[in-house]
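Trying the structure run again after the queue cleared.
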Amino acid sequence: MNALEINREQAEALEKGFLVDCRDHLQSQGIDLGQYNSVANAADAEDLRLALGYQQVNYYGTSCGTRLALTLMRYHPEGIRSVILDSVFPPPVAYPSEAIISFSGALDRVFQSCAADEGCRSKYPDLEQTFYQVIDRLRANPDEINSASGVVVIDEGVFLDAVYMLLHPAEGVVGLPHAIDSASRGSFGPFKGAIDSLSSYNRNVATGVNYVSLCRDEVGFDSYEHAQAIAADYPPHLADYLVTPFDFELCELWLSAVTDPADPIENTPVESDIPALIFAGYYAPITSPEWAQRAAETLSSSYLYEFPNMAHGVMRSDACALRLGLLLLDDPTTEPDAACVQEIIGISFR
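Done. C-alpha cells:
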C-alpha cells in the first residue's frame, strides 16, 4: 500500500498494534514494567550515590531529566547538594493535554519576534498566515521529499513534526521563518535535516521505558476530555495535530500491564529548599517558560533565568548558561552573577 493511501486513523491503528505487541513481548520475557517510572529511577540514582560512597551529589537534568531530578528532591533530599533544571518538565503539568499550550506558545513567540524585527518582517510580512496556508495546502495535497531514509510523504502532520523539531535548537528557530516561506513556495529543503531526524528518532528512544514512564507518570493523570477542553482555545490546525485519543487509548493498554499505579503525589509540585538553578528557553516548543516558573514557585532556594536566544536545552548550547551552572556548582548557597543574561539581545532571523 502506498503511504499516500493510508490515512491518519489507519496509521495510528498500525502503530498501536505494534506497540501493544512490544508490550506483550516485554512481558513474555518476564520484565516487570511497573519498575520503569520516575520514583523507581530516582531510587536507582540514590542507590548509585550510596554505592559510590558520595555524601552528596549535584544533579543536572534536561527536559524529562528534570522530572527525575525533581523526584529525587522529593524523596531523597539528603543526598543532594544542588540541582540544575534545564527546560523543566514539572510533575503537575497535564501531559499530553498541555502540549498544545507549549507548542502554540513557541510558534506565537516566533511570529511575534519576526513581526517586531524589521529585517524579518520585510522578508516575511505575513509569516503566521503563510504558516497556516502551508498546512491547509498539505492537508489537501501532500508533497514529497527525498530524505536519508528514502522518499518521505509530507502531509500536515509531518510538516508540523518538522517545525516542532526545528524549534528545539536555537539555530533551528533562527531559520524557521525562511523554512516556512520556502515551504509556501513548494520547497521543503530547509526541513530536510529535521525530517531526517524524525526518521531516526525511534532508534534513540527505548520504546518500552518511554511508554511505561509516560503513561504511568503523566497520561494516567490526564484525560482526552481535558485535552479537548484546552484545545478549544487554539487554532484547529494545531488541535487536530496534537489532540487525539491515541496516547490515552494506548496508555490504557500499557497500564493494564502495571499492577502498581502512580501515587497521586506524583502529580503535585515538589517543595524543597535545595539550591536549584533553573533555565528556560524563550522559544521552547515542549517545556515552555511557564513550566519553569511553575516549578520555581515551590523551590524556595531557586534561581530562574529565561534566555531570549534559546529554545529547548539551554546550558549545553549557551556559554552564559554554562557559566551560571559552573558558578552554582562552585557555591550553591550564593546566587550566580547573572550579568551575562542581561547582555543577551535575542536572536536574529535569517
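The longest helix spans residues 8-28. Worth checking whether this holds up in the mutant runs.
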